[in-house]
Amino acid sequence: MKKLFVFALFGLLAAPALRAQQLWRSEIGxxxxxxxxxxxxxxxxxRIDLFDLPGLDIAPARPSYTAVFAVIPWSPKLAIEPSFSxxxxxxxxxxxxxxxxxxxxxxxSPKLYGAAGLTLGHQSGTALEExxxxxxxxxxxxxxxxxxxxxxxxxxxxxxxxxxxYGPRDVYALLFGLSATSGGGTSRRAAAGPARSLWRQVIGxxxxxxxxxxxxxxxxxxxxxxxxxxxxxxxxLMPPTLFAIFPIGKRLAVEPGFDLHRLQQAGPGSLTSATxxxxxxxxxxxxxxxxxxxxxxxxxxxxxxxxxxxRPGGVVAAGYRFGLSDELGGRIELSHTMFPARRTNPRFPxxxxxxxxxxxxxxxx
Length: 365
Description:
The protein is 5% helix and 60% strand. It is mainly β.
């Protein structure tokens, strides 16, 4: 009986400490996965199914979910989570698309959580201005992957209001997120590959500015510029959004890159389009954080009614790497990708893509 009383007393004393345990960490992350966009109340088969790795959001024109998020602890069980996606395109017309979200995350346990908040999609450009509000609820499961890298699986519903241009729409999504702590200095140094390598094994994501120039009579319709966070990758002939770095020597590293985007429109005139970006290059460490790179980039495209095709190209790049914390690294890079003309159907002129990108990396341990 005394032992039982001691254990019970210990449990009562420990309960406040357990309740006060911090269940959130400061993190920054990206997400992608499946989303279904359904106009509300139509009773029609007019859904749009999206699958993006990583997320590609052009709300309110075609809403899905924000691609970049941050977690800011507020109390032991509560955290504030802002999120955003933004892009600006300049061609014949100028268009700016932005989607921002703000929600409260509540930890039901160290791994399970629920969330609720608001979203705002804004579209502006030549003779166009539109804003659409949404109410979001979500639930998910968090997990530790490796080193400072965390993952989460989340189901969510975003109910979007009616505007002058767009009717009410519901967005149902099942997403996978990757995140890393945004500071601290408690993690061990990532594996550096071969002894004394100037590279670290990392996984990363990129975003930034690209100028796409179609080489044909210098027509304005063949040239456009884009600023996007995250990068749009294969959707716009931009460099891959996701990349990884694997050291193979003191100064050399292999860098594969990838992104995938698929859209399926149901109903009359149904349409399916899929694009993918697969790249590989060699990175050479010059001095300090400076590096140069060269390799190849193949963009695969399949659209209903046209044969699948690939556009291979060559890429050269140079950049500078820097540390943000023990858990996060960054880089700024200037790249130039050259796609030759395609002579068979569908035909395309040669195109050059010059970009300045910002990269965020997380070490793999």
